[in-house]
UniProtKB/TrEMBL annotation:
Residues 121-223 bind DNA. The gene is ompR_1. GO terms for biological process: regulation of DNA-templated transcription. One of its GO terms (cellular component) is cytosol. One of its GO terms (molecular function) is transcription cis-regulatory region binding. It is found in: Cytoplasm. Its main location: cytoplasm. Residues 3-116 form the Response regulatory domain. This is Transcriptional regulatory protein OmpR.
């Protein structure tokens, strides 16, 4: 059974989401402030963390900054509707996705399933992907550049896989959104751009412009 940590100080919303997710086969733990979130992450191995940005004691973004030293568990951020700056910061700090509050439980369930699906190696049938300086181990989800392990999030790994599969061709934003984020590209959704920007920065020590933005078309991996 999928094990999810739900970090939100809104007890009413937490109870609603927990009941819905439990009825759909997901085991939920709840935490109502940032300190409790960190304590539970240290004590348990979760498949996914749902994290509200506005939390007491330690806010969600501060929690997110600490996560790389504690766990590689994927994160979905809960943000206030229309608060684009917090969404972008959350994605830049390594969140895999976000959803605006008040959120529909059905949409959250769909996002949870999509993130877990794309960040979990299902079987050993995935062969390693190699291209010049880049090596992707799809079973253990390890990325290496020039033989050196590069720390990437689950979404960034899937983005690399998708770009590498294009064999140097331009990948459209629409295709990348469907393939990596598993949803249609929306006009005001900058999630894909933020993930690409974050991944580009990680690759820049190895190449000045590792992922080219082709205006009006999409992105091209040139590493």
């Amino acid at each position: 059974m999928t094990h999810v940590l739900l970090g939100d100080d809104d007890t009413e919303l937490s109870e609603l989401l927990t009941e819905y997710l439990t009825n759909h086969g997901i085991h939920c733990d709840s935490a109502y402030d940032g300190v409790e979130v960190l304590e539970k992450i240290k004590a348990h191995n979760y498949d996914l963390i749902v994290l509200d940005i506005m939390m007491p004691k330690i806010d969600g973004l501060s929690v997110l900054r600490q996560l790389p030293t504690l766990t590689q568990t994927p994160v979905i951020m809960l943000t206030a509707k229309g608060d684009e700056i917090d969404r972008i910061i959350g994605l830049e700090l390594g969140a895999d996705d976000y959803i605006a509050k008040p959120c529909n439980p059905r949409e959250l369930l769909a996002r949870i399933n999509a993130v877990i699906k794309r960040t979990t190696a299902q079987t050993t049938e995935f062969a390693p992907l190699n291209h010049e300086r880049l090596e992707l181990d799809q079973v253990h989800r390890i990325c290496k550049v020039d033989g050196e392990i590069l720390q990437v999030t689950g979404t960034e790994f899937d983005l690399l896989v998708a770009l590498l599969q294009q064999q140097g061709n331009v990948a459209s934003k629409e295709w990348l959104s469907q393939t990596v984020l598993q949803r249609e590209l929306q006009p005001l959704d900058r999630s894909l751009d933020v993930h690409v920007s974050r991944l580009r920065k990680k690759l820049q020590p190895f190449h000045e412009d590792p992922i080219k933005a082709v205006r009006g078309k999409g992105y091209q991996l040139v590493l």
